[in-house]
Amino acid sequence: MIKNTLLIFFTFATISFAQGINYFSTENRKEFGNFLFESGDFIRANQEYREFLSKQENDTIRVRYAETLFQIERFTEAADYFKSAFYNSSFEDEARLGYFKSLFFAGLYDDFKKDLEINEYISPVYKNNIMKLNTMTYYLEKNPLPDSTELLSYFEDEARIKMSEFYLRKDIPERKNGTKATLLSALIPGSGKIYLGEYGDGITAFIATGLLTFLAVDNFNANHKLRGAMFSGLAFLSYVGNIYGTALAAEKFNIGIKVNLDKEIRLYFKENNYFLPEIKY
To answer: Which structural domain range is residue 42 located in?
Structure first.
C-alpha cells in the first residue's frame, strides 16, 4: 500500500511539475487527502485536510477531517470538529452521529447523557444509532442499570435477546457468597473451595488437613509428643491457610465474574461495530 501511495504521489507530482501545476495547491491537497482517506491512511489524510481547511472551508472535508481524528483515536478533538458541522452543513446528521460516537469512545459518558437531553443535537436520521450508543454506556459503566424497558427498545431481534442476557448477568451477577465459602471451609476443610468450583484445591485441602490431623492424633496416642506437636502445628497451618485461601478465592471469583462479563460485553459490541452504520462522506 505504501509503495502504491508513493508511486501515485511521484507520478502526480511529475505530471504536475510538467504542466506547471503547484502540487501543494489547496485543491491538490484536497484531492490527495481524499485519496489517503479512501485508502485508510487517516494520519496523513488528517495532515492534508488540516492544511486545506486552514485556507478554505468545505463541508465534506470538515466532516472527513473529524472522521480522521476519530480514526486515529483523538476522540475529544473529533467531537469538537463534528460539533462544528452541526449547522449549515450538508452533513448535519452525520456530524451529530459522529459527535456522539466520539464522546462514547472517549469514555465521556456523562457528557454524552447530558448532550442527549438537547433535542437539536439528536439526528432524526441516526437517532436509533445514537440511542443504542446511549444504552451501551450503561453496560460499560459501574453504576446500577436503569429499567431495561427503554434501554432495550432500540435493539432488534437477536441483538435484543443478547442485550437482555447481558442485562440480567450485569444486574444480578452470578456471585458466590464469600462468608458462606469461608464458613464451609471452617466446618469441613476444602468444602468452601468446592463451593467455589475449585474442586482440585478443595479435595487437596481436605486430604492434607485430614492426613496431618490423623498423624498428630496417632503420634500423641503413641506417646510421641514431639512429633504429635509438629503434626498438630502443620494441621493447624493447613486448616487456617485453607480458610484464608477460601476467602481470597471467593473475592477473586467475584471479581473474575465482573471482569469476564465486561470483556464479553465489549467484545460483542466490537464485533457488531457498536451498531454503527457505514457512512460515506
So the answer is: 1-56
